[in-house]
Amino acid sequence: MIVSLFRRVASPKKAITGAAVAAATTGMLFAAAPAQAAPAAPAAAKAQSIAHKMIPDAAQYKAFSKIVEHESGWNVTATNASSGAYGLVQALPGSKMASAGSDWKTNPATQIKWGLDYMNSRYGSPVAAWNFWQSHGWY
């Protein structure tokens, strides 16, 4: 029993090593997920303000905002490393947004216009797109 107790107390190195491996593995798993750089707060706020003006209905704006928050965190240059999806609404390919404007890579208004048009044409509204997103984890 004393040997068993001693082994438990004497093995914190193993526990720490195991925890470090687990943390590194978890970190690698998170890194493998679609990582997006955090947008600068002013840029995200600007994009949200633009969207609010373009989507005056509170329920539709809220649904649009939830999708964008999940997809890109309001980062206009968010890129999914796995799929290549791009922008606020994670268009795939991102170049699809060129139909809304040639400045699609950097202009939040262009991306919002394209995303709103996409949600309206495919789902009928941002609320319907958000309902689909909640059921499927994508839209």
Automatic annotation (TrEMBL):
InterPro entries: Lysozyme-like_dom_sf, Transglycosylase_SLT_dom_1
One Pfam family linked to the record: SLT
Signal peptide (residue range): 1-37
UniProt keyword Nucleotidyltransferase, yes or no: no
Domain Transglycosylase SLT: residue ranges: 62-126
Keywords: Signal
Descriptive protein name: Transglycosylase SLT domain protein
Source organism (scientific name): Streptomyces jeddahensis
